[in-house]
User: Which sequence fits this backbone?
């Protein structure tokens, strides 16, 4: 599946840019020798944000498959299963 919806592309790229900014902030924290607790807290926030981005992509894929009016095609369902395997 490809991301064809322009609004979805914009949402995803904006979210990933925010995550990228968070990661740069963490790198700066490490370089500035800030406390491990604060660094771990920020890394946890990055992980959570990335998980949300992944979940949103999966949900968008499912929604697009089901809005075709025919339910989820076998090919699409197999791809969704692959997404879920990757997430484990």
Assistant:
């Amino acid at each position: 599946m490809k991301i064809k919806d322009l609004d979805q592309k914009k949402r995803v790229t904006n979210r990933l840019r925010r995550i990228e900014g968070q990661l740069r902030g963490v790198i700066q924290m490490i370089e500035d020798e800030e406390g491990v607790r604060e660094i771990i807290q920020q890394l946890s926030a990055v992980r959570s944000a990335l998980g949300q981005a992944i979940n949103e992509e999966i949900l968008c894929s499912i929604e697009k498959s089901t809005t075709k009016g025919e339910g989820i095609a076998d090919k699409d369902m197999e791809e969704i299963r692959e997404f879920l395997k990757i997430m484990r």
About this structure: The radius of gyration is 17 Å. Residues 8 and 60 are 8 Å apart (CA to CA).
